[in-house]
TrEMBL record:
It comes from Polioptila caerulea. This is ELMO3 protein. GO terms for molecular function: SH3 domain binding. SUPFAM superfamilies: ARM repeat, PH domain-like. It comes from the Eukaryota.
Length: 696
């Protein structure tokens, strides 16, 4: 194929060679893989070794299928719709079909509702693919069409494949337009979505969850609060915890992402209170503050009002607020003016006092009876702890587009944030006692508590009870041991001879890491395509050939774990790779840069530039770990240094293990900073043995 000739001339030559008239009715198409049509705009993507075939042109194919889907013959119509669903993935065909007003015919098939089963499934699949190309706005859909799609979701006696496609269509519709959102939210009730969520079909369950998440993400804060309250009433949390997280089937990436979003959206309901400072003139907020004092010092506060003068009463209140641990005991509202954590800290304290009154009273009274400098200030600790929990749980931060890191225990507990606070505030008191802390040590104690919480959360406990057990087991002495181990490990590796040995070992271990990265590329990874509207459905796989000379890639279906190299039709010779781009430099992140988005996408994006600079293969890694391994592996193939943070971590681990093995014999021996001095040579060498005498 001559890339300098216009495609029309190339086709004319091919048709002439085979004595085919009307060359304009033909087109070239990839013989393997997606079988995309070759056009002037995508011909530059043709790789050496690609096999092309002569086929009917997109406009001819579109014309035939446009007539075929209107056929009265059921078999012809079904076959035409099936072929249409397959061809609509191609942008050149989609453009031709839409130009012939093909969408109108699809609307008619759905709106008339005469066809069902396989025929309807092909129609909805074709419509989904056509809308993916963004030629037509979702706003143009007629109410009759939308109501028909909604009816498939709401009816029981409908094939699950049709329900899946309908849920997927509604999920795509929701973010595009407020009117469509309102229509879907009104007609597809939460009860109906919960019914689908409880289905045994995993794909139907997934699509229902996708639509639920789309509705939650595109609504106002007040509506989101109402929706989540309703879901809580319907025990969705218990259902997810029992039937999805702990089901016999492993949790897929897609569902893990939706559970992360559900957790994030739920926790972000705390954001408003977190950012709101206390208003000293608000009667409601002052009542909450007074209720804290009254719960703690009930018997003392029950003195009749007339017994003390106002001044004496104020002095008594100030004393009680000081015992509660407020810094500004005459005006405790001042302590809560700092936002974050704002009123969220007050809410947590009130929840703790009302739901665990015994633990609350014990905390306050125990510290009231200690010496002044050794008392653990409840209010001050609560305010700081609330801030720490908000930071650890990322409250107030936008949802990531790719993250899957949810806490299983979140779905195992109502009022998760408040219950977590109740466990952690008691942990503060316990750690305070273990450290024999004074007021000056407040920051140190909170630092230890943060470490206890983050170390325990990293173990991903499945319930709050398990979290409580583990976090309490990780006491101050355990934290000290862990810190000491880490510090000793650091110190023993800082001696000059050890540092020199490290440098000597580095090249060998770096080579080991390089080999591991290339092996990982040979195993391959499943990547997702993230479009501007949604994050799902499109999966592709990429792997390096065993001889490290070619990158093979291609689209795959959900559930495929490790497709063989032969099934991946596309390829890039390593010799043609020019450079690696990461983050903001990648073309696919420039196209869709929007404010919040997509900090996480930027962190996971990389591209390979090959042949000429315009040709890029764009990746979005599933995790930061995969991003590091792939960017390192590609840098190795390009003959460059491995630059990811994972390289440094792996190198440190390997060096540490190698050094420990080599220094085993030197345990408990101090390694001097300088080598011992070399003694002077002896005055004579007469002590040497003379071999010549022995021979005689």
């Amino acid at each position: 194929l001559s890339q300098t000739k216009p495609l029309a001339a190339v086709l004319k030559d091919v048709c002439d060679a085979w004595n085919l008239p009307n060359a304009e009715r033909y087109a070239l198409q990839y013989a393997d893989g997606r079988q995309t049509y070759i056009t002037e705009s995508n011909r530059k993507d043709i790789k050496n070794g690609s096999i092309l075939r002569l086929t009917t042109s997109p406009d001819q194919e579109a014309e035939q299928l446009y007539i075929g889907i209107q056929s009265k013959n059921v078999d012809v119509k079904t076959d035409s719709l099936k072929k249409l669903a397959s061809l609509c993935q191609d942008i050149a065909f989609a453009r031709e079909f839409i130009n012939r007003n093909g969408l109108k015919q699809i609307y008619l098939i759905v709106e008339e509702g005469k066809d069902a089963g396989e025929m309807l499934a092909h129609t909805l699949k074709a419509f989904t693919e056509l809308m993916e190309h963004d030629f037509v706005s979702w706003k143009n859909l007629s109410p009759v069409f939308i109501n028909k799609i909604v009816s498939y979701v709401n009816m029981n006696a409908v094939d699950t494949s049709i329900q899946q496609l309908s849920l997927s269509l509604l999920e795509n519709m929701v973010p595009t337009n407020r009117d469509l959102f309102d229509l879907v939210k009104k007609d597809v009730t939460l009860d109906r979505l919960l019914t689908h969520l409880q289905a045994t079909n995993a794909q139907l369950q997934l699509k229902a969850m996708a639509l639920l998440i789309a509705l939650l993400l595109n609504t106002t804060n007040a509506e989101r609060q109402d929706m989540l309250d309703y879901l809580r009433e319907k025990n969705i949390r218990q259902f997810i915890h029992k039937n999805i997280i702990h089901s016999s089937e492993p949790l897929g990436d897609e569902m893990a992402h939706y559970l992360y979003v559900l957790q994030s959206v739920s926790l972000n309901l705390c954001e408003q209170r977190m950012k709101m400072s206390m208003d000293p003139y608000s009667q409601e907020q002052r009542d909450l503050l007074q209720s804290l004092r009254q719960t703690a010092f009930e018997s003392e506060s029950e003195v009749p009002a007339g017994t003390f003068s106002t001044e004496r009463r104020r002095s008594l209140c100030a004393k009680e607020f000081r015992k509660l641990g407020f810094m500004n005991n005459s005006n405790p509202a001042e302590d809560l003016r700092r936002a974050p954590p704002g009123l969220l800290a007050l809410d947590n304290m009130v929840y703790f006092s009302r739901n665990t009154p015994n633990a609350f009273s014990r905390f306050v009274l125990e510290n009231s009876s200690r010496e002044d400098k050794h008392e653990c200030p409840f209010a001050r600790s609560s305010i700081q702890l609330t801030l720490i929990l908000c930071e650890i749980l990322h409250i107030g931060e936008p949802c990531s587009e790719t993250a899957q890191a949810f806490y299983p225990m979140f779905f195992g507990q109502d009022h998760f944030f408040e219950e977590l606070f109740c466990i952690c505030i008691q942990l503060v008191n316990k750690t305070w006692k273990e450290m024999r802390a004074t007021q000056e040590d407040f920051d140190k104690v909170m630092q230890v508590v943060r470490e206890q919480i983050t170390r325990t959360l990293s173990l991903r406990p499945t319930s709050l009870e398990l979290f409580k057990t583990r976090v309490n087991a990780l006491n101050y002495s355990e934290i000290l041991k862990l810190r000491q181990t880490e510090r000793l490990h650091q110190e023993e590796t800082l001696a000059v001879p050890v540092l020199q040995l490290r440098e000597k070992l580095k090249p060998e271990l770096l080579e080991l890491i390089r080999q591991q990265r290339l092996l990982h590329l040979c195993e391959g990874t499943l990547f997702r395509k993230i479009s501007s509207r949604r994050r799902q459905d499109k999966l592709w796989y990429c792997r390096l050939s065993p001889n490290h000379k070619v990158l093979h890639y291609g689209d795959v279906e959900e559930g495929v774990q490790s497709p063989p190299i032969e099934s991946l039709p596309e390829k890039i010779p390593v010799a043609d790779m020019k450079m690696l781009l990461v983050g903001k430099e990648c073309p696919h992140t420039k196209e869709k840069s929007s404010g919040k988005q997509n900090k996480d996408v930027l962190e996971l994006a990389f591209s390979i530039v090959h042949d000429v600079e315009e040709y890029c293969l764009n990746f979005i890694a599933p995790t930061r770990y995969e991003f590091c391994l792939w960017t390192d592996g590609l840098n190795v193939l390009l003959g460059k240094e491995m630059t990811s943070e994972r390289t440094q971590t792996d190198l440190d681990v390997l060096l540490s293990m190698e050094l420990k093995l080599r220094l085993l014999d030197l345990e408990n021996i101090n390694i001097p900073d300088r080598p011992p001095p070399i003694p002077k040579p002896p005055s004579n060498l007469n002590f040497c043995y003379d071999f010549s005498h022995a021979e005689q």
